[in-house]
Write the structure tokens for this entry.
Amino acid sequence: MNNRKRFTGKKTLLAAMALLAFHHVQAQEAKDTLTLSLDKAIEIALAENPTMKVAGQEIELKKEVKREAYAGLLPEVALSGSYSRTLKKQTMAMDFGGETQTIQVGSDNSYSGGVVVNLPLFAPALYKSINLTKTDVELAVEKARSSKLGMINQVTKAYYQLLLAQDSYRVLLQGYEQAEATAQITKAKYDQGSVSEYDKIRAEVQARSLKPGVVAARNAINLSRLQLQTLLGINADIPIAVDGNLKEYEMVMFQRQLNNDPINLNNNTNLKQLDLNADLLQKNLSLQRTNFMPTLGASFNYMYTSLNNDFKMSHYRWFPYSTVGLSLSIPLFKASNFTKVKQTKIQMMQLAENRLNTERQLKQQATSYLDNMSSSTEQVVSNRENIVQAEKGRLIALKRYEVGKGTILELNDSEVALTQAQLVYNQSIYDYLVSKADLDQVLGKEEVTE
């Protein structure tokens, strides 16, 4: 008896320890879950996504290119050294008192070494290149902003997609649970003999037919969560969760529709990049025109030389000399300089036409997004009324079925109508939010506005 009591006590203790461990694991998992708001998700993506890191590195690369261009204004200093071995000395013939004598001139070994300094005094091409690199840095910054806008757009839509998946799962799960409850009621009625076997089978089939949709919705949540994790640049094994649901954005939709602001593309990144490219072409044209201008440079040499016929370097005598000079280069004719200028002018005209066409397309896109937002707002109002009517219809159908005045088909149809109304309601809010995110990207808004 005592052994049995001790054994029972040990089992109770082990069960209690297992229960505590289970609650500890659950608490730890809940603690490790990263709960995200939309602003927090965007903040993480801008900091951790590899695309944003590459864009930042591209800016640093262009800045280094700019510093390299400025470095061309500084003097170049180098150590120079040379050695030459005379294979056959130069022979000179000289007349001494009517007799011609030959003399070999030079040494077997010739050494020279020293410092060489070169400095550009007037270099138009260098000055234009510096201006060119300034615009190049600005273009890299704008491209990075374009990457930022694209990342904000992707993360925003992925966040809303996860909200839609979660809301759809809740709606489908609720519909499945309602169908299960209806099937149980029908089975009880069938057991009592108050309904036919057809009603029982029809209710069970209805419940089973909704199960695949619930499973697919759950898989959609996992896929949407994985997509958001990828954009955030975090590992898939880090659990994440998002705040709220789509219904919370309903009032925001109506507030936004009251602000009928005109379309302003001044901050559109595509147009800004085209403008910067046009500036680059203009500066490149100025750079090419410097091919017709002279250049002037200065040089300074300080060298030591030694001429010897042997390799006894310890006995060599070294003689210094130095020079200062100017070098002037005046281009007279080079045919390719003219063709390059014409090519650049043609490129500038092409870019102007592309910008005009791009601006028209962007205005069309912005107008389309605004129309979609307005349509979605109207649909939300209608769909919200549909949900109220569908809930009322299901309640009536359920009461009629319970008292034996309605059929199982009426009840099933009312439940399906309610589920569809809730799904369409969530979809209309999601469509509005996606169109709003695309509109913000077209307008070049870096902050998410709801």
